[in-house]
Amino acid sequence: MSTTSTLEPAIRVQGIEKSFRDLQVLRGVDFDVSTGSIFALLGSNGAGKTTLVRILSTLLKADAGTAAVAGFDVAAAPADVRRSISLTGQFAAVDEVLTGRENLVLIAKLRHRKNPAGIADGMLARFALTEAGNRRAGTYSGGMRRRLDIAMSLIGEPDIIFLDEPTAGLDPQSRNEVWQTIRDLAAGGTTVLLTTQYLDEAEQLADRIGILHEGTIIQNGTLAELQQLLPPATAEYITKQPSLEDIFLALVGGTDSDALGGDGGPAAREKRQSS
Questions:
Q1: How far apart are CA 218 and CA 9, in angstroms?
Q2: Are 188 and 35 in contact (CB under 8 A)?
Q3: Could you report the per-residue pLDDT of 19-61, keeping only the tens digit for each?
Q4: pLDDT given for residue 206 in this prediction
Q5: 170 near 127, Cβ under 8 Å?
Q6: Domains in the chain, start-ordered, CATH in brackets?
Q7: Distance CA 160, CA 87 (A)
Q8: Are 69 and 89 in contact (CB under 8 A)?
């Protein structure tokens, strides 16, 4: 994970609210994202993660509150925000008929970049796709498609990238490939805001984690700070800090961790083993 910068926040969110008719999705969301860091917005399906990303990327207007991205107000200066960011949605937006290289060349041309062929070759090398560059994207694995999608998003060198559920539906190997890509982005100075419902993903990648529940951030901090919210699990000869899964379920009031793909976390497992 990257070292958190002391500069002005790359993203600042204050009191954001959003409703769809009678359904209030966001109820006053507040958080900052430091420049060059990875911030994970963690929440269950329907928590409002994608709605918030759409607001920050100027695709949707908030009902109340303010947000600034790269120093620009998302409502007052949407064009400036769009020039500073890139957005990768939940599904890879690649043309499967084109080759990987052709996808990249197309995006470079659409963004009016000089030397689109050279940009495409550089991105293929950066994302370890050179050997597959002349193959149709439809033949790529899920991880390769997602890496190509992120490479396309980075043409134009945005300062900030939004990744909405970047590993949804991927197998473990592909997830690890995408995780390494995200780490590399932050190490290169790109600010990353990712949404996820996978607890291990937030735990592995994020410098800071915001837990979004019922439309608001109920806790926000580093993994170490969040671990302090619960007492450590204890067993004879063994002491462990609570996992992010334990913290999440305790904060949102969940009692059935099967819905999150877990078995109660290390603390719960130890308790069962020692009883």
A1: 20
A2: no
A3: 999 999 999 999 999 999 999 999 988 899 999 999 999 999 9
A4: 97
A5: no
A6: 1-92+158-221 (3.40.50.300), 229-275 (no CATH)
A7: 9
A8: no
